[in-house]
Amino acid sequence: MRIAPFALPAAGIGNWEIFYLGVEDIEHAVLYRENSTSDEIIDDRMSLERHLAQWEKIWHAAFDEAQSKEMIETRANELRP
Fold first, then answer.
1. Residue 63: exposed, middle, or buried by beta-carbon count in 10 A (0-12, 13-18, 19+)?
2. Distance CA 52, CA 34 (A)
3. How far is CA 11 from each of CA 1, 8, 55, 57, 70, rounded to the nearest angstrom?
4. How many CB atoms lie within 10 A of CB 31?
5. CB contact at 8 A, 45 and 25
6. How far apart are CA 9 and CA 30, in angstroms?
7. Backbone phi, psi, residue 67, to 5°
8. Nearest-angstrom CA–CA distance, 64 and 74
9. Spans of all domains in the chain
10. Sign of CA dihedral 17, 21, 24, 28
């Protein structure tokens, strides 16, 4: 698990997941996305590339796994009575 800083601009593309159908490459992938009123499966390379680019930005800006774990543990300990 990695925590992304709140200071990052909102991605603005809602909830989504990329599913790889067999080989893990864009040629064998579909995009599943949803919002409060609908959901859809998209088999469009441009949409996949746009979402993957957004994921990369967030991933590289996020705290690493060790930092994220420490942040969660610290906060959990602060909440304990």
1. middle
2. 16
3. 18, 8, 9, 9, 25
4. 20
5. no
6. 25
7. -65, -45
8. 15
9. 15-79
10. negative
Token digits for 32? 């599943």
Confirm if 3 and 69 have CB atoms less than 8 A apart: no
Integer CA distances (angstroms), 71 to 20, 28, 57, 68, in order: 31, 36, 21, 5
Q: Tell me which H or E stretch contains 50.
A: helix 45-61
Length of the chain: 81
Question: Rounded to two decimals, what is the model's pTM?
Answer: 0.72
**pLDDT tens, position by position, 2-54:** 998 888 776 666 788 999 998 888 999 999 999 889 999 999 999 999 999 98
